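Sorry to interrupt, but I need a hand with the structure work. I would like you to pick a protein and set down its sequence and fold. Please put the record directly below this note.
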Amino acid sequence: MRLHFVDTLRVLLIALVVVHHVAGIYSGLDAWYFTETPTSDGESLLLTVFMLVNQAWFMGAFFLLAGLFTPASYDRKGPGRFLRDRLLRLGVPFLVFYFVINPLLWRDVHGIGSGPLWFVLALLIFDCCYAAFRFATRNRPRPARAETPLPYRHVLTVIALLAAATWALRIVIPIGFWIPVIDFPTAAYLPQYVTFFVLGIVAARRGWLPGALRARTGWLGLALALGGTLVFFPLALAGGLEAWLGRGTLGSLFYALWDSTFAVGLVLALLTLLRARFDREHRYLSAHVFTVYVIHAVVVTVVGLSLTWLDWPSVAKFALGAAVAVPACFLLAGPVRRIPGVRRVL
């Protein structure tokens, strides 16, 4: 059974990824292939907070959705075909981007790197780990359980354990630490990525989607996201502009509590809302999500460069760039997939 509301979330997430990287041009964080100096400190702060809020949850949500479909894919294909498919669908785009597209965007032959396709590399590693686990344990294919309620105590336990693991990792890998060679820009969120991928697998096996997405689940998620933001986020920032980044500070503990609570709560709320209100097919959009992910760096960079002549406030240029880049990515994705041989990969 196709879960159209899950496809809707994938479309929303990839649109947010595009918008997030447009914001990187104008935020003053030096977070894209080229940047412009913000026209005011207030605009820089606004775009920075926007990016921090995105980073707290949206890539974790991508890993959750990836994990959700991994068991069925493995069961259907078996270990050999599953790994071959993952190496083709993930490995080939990654290598092309790493050695060709990324240097072109940097306009420097030495600029090899994964760029935003770090996610593709991480997902390939997660898939290989899952296949190794299934093969080693001789875990045979089995149907998912009947739809069962999501135990709320499990939600709170996951948040607590995730926050603790995130805080501990950030003692040695604070936010902003960049892992060289593989170009992993957000290693401080690795506990979230692993946890959400595993949760997707567990949700598939236990029939939590869509059965667990009842109205009260959505309200619980919304309460967690808003409550965590009102309580933990101010406490995290109260210790200073640097304390929340990591290194075992109290501020970093509150920040880990915030982004863990916010991520889990918001994903629960969105899935519940989309299932109730937007459980409909978006065939073209959902079919091109991965293609958009692979090509969006080129589109965002071209759009940003084309707007350099505008003498507008940074937020206005960000809004225009986002309004152009998102539809442009989806419109370009169709012709790209029609290139001979590309459809097998994208």
Q: What stands out?
A: The mean pLDDT is 91. Residues 58-106 form the longest helix (49 residues). Residues 1-55+282-346 form one domain. DSSP finds eleven helices and no strands in the chain.
